[in-house]
Structure to design on (395 residues):
């Protein structure tokens, strides 16, 4: 039987190919547009030296259009969420994040590899297993389409102004491309797009409940709560069949995260090992984050070289490098330096890096939990030094 990782990779590869083809098509359209713009600006055939600045300016316009359409997309989720009874939690573009904290908007910093932005909101109460999820998920696509039509229509009366015309057309092309990439149901790079989410939530009641719970949890986290402080019934692991759905599978991940937050490290490690060995819909990002937690559990437990080598394979090391500023990754790197490499100097540098990151991280309650994990490592390292042998945490 094909392993889960291989099935996930093949499934994601199809989606990635489709996304790549869309980007090629958008790039081709933008290329034709750029050629027409350059021809308009230089009808007599200017030298390469004169064309290069114009071309570079168009590349900046293309990048700006991608950035603006990302804002429009996430803004669409925000607008349609508010219209259907959701409450604002956070709005995130690139590494800039706005979080509602004690009734006020706060600017924070968050960077997750492969993610351009996200709008998180707290959903209205669920009634008979239902809540308004279609418009919230479709809001970004709708706004991308509306903006694309408006910019293309605006370009016609501005045809005589070459640069403004080109900007409007690029915004239209990128907006239409963004709507298609997010609207047509796709599973790419371990992530389900908006269209896929809408279909999935309509078909699977357990996935729908899981989506609602995740949004509620995000709201509670933004309000300052930790996972261990939330209702225990929220963290029930779905059935084995339901776990094949990516939305429901995320609840299994949250159950592991809650055990970690409760410092039930052995129990968390066993559950993570079980879930990662099952045929589930756990997305690639969550699988790698779970392995990061497993490495930590092993370090403060038996600290076995062979298991650490198995967990920290080439792909995991690559992932942790790409997420080097994420709290749990920094915490695990700290634990590895202190408990396995016995390098106090390296561990101290990682701790300082963690504290620097923590100042702008959006969720201080999560930072407090990670500090507790790092304190466990420090306590264990001191105990080992005193007793002259490696000891699991809590012994």
């Amino acid at each position: 039987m094909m392993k889960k990782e291989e099935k996930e990779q093949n499934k994601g590869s199809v989606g990635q190919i489709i996304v790549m083809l869309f980007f090629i098509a958008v790039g081709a359209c933008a290329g034709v547009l750029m050629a027409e713009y350059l021809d308009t600006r230089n009808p007599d055939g200017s030298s390469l030296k004169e064309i290069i600045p114009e071309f570079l300016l168009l590349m900046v316009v293309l990048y700006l259009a991608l950035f603006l359409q990302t804002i429009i997309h996430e803004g669409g989720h925000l607008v349609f969420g508010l219209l259907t009874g959701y409450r604002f939690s956070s709005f995130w573009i690139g590494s800039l994040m706005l979080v509602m904290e004690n009734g006020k908007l706060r600017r924070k910093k968050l960077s997750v590899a492969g993610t351009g932005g996200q709008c998180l909101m707290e959903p209205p109460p669920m009634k008979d297993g239902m809540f308004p999820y279609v418009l919230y998920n479709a809001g970004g696509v709708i706004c991308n389409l509306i903006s694309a039509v408006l910019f293309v229509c605006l370009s016609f009366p501005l045809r005589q102004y070459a640069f403004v015309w080109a900007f409007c057309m690029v915004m239209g092309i990128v907006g239409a491309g963004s709507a298609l990439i997010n609207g047509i149901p796709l599973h790419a790079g371990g992530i389900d797009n908006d269209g896929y989410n809408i279909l999935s939530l309509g078909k699977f009641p357990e996935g729908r409940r899981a989506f609602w719970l995740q949004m509620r949890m995000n709201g509670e986290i933004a309000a300052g709560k930790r996972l261990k402080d939330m209702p225990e019934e929220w963290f029930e692991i779905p059935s084995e069949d339901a776990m094949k759905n990516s939305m429901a599978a995320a609840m299994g991940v949250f159950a592991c995260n809650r055990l970690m937050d409760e410092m039930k490290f052995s129990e968390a490690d066993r559950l993570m090992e079980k879930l990662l060995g099952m045929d589930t819909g756990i997305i690639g990002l969550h699988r790698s984050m779970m392995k990061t937690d497993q490495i930590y559990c092993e370090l403060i437990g038996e600290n076995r070289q062979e298991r650490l080598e198995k967990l920290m394979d080439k792909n995991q090391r690559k992932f942790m490098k790409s997420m080097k500023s994420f709290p749990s990754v920094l915490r695990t790197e700290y634990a590895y330096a202190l408990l396995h490499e016995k390098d106090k100097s390296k561990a101290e540098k990682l701790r300082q890096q963690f504290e620097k990151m923590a100042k702008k991280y959006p969720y201080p309650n999560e930072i407090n939990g990670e500090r507790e994990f790092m304190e466990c490592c420090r306590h264990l390292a001191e105990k080992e030094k005193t007793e002259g042998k490696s000891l699991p945490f809590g012994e």
Remarks:
- DSSP finds 14 helices and six strands in the chain.
- Confidence is low (pLDDT under 50) at residues 1-12.
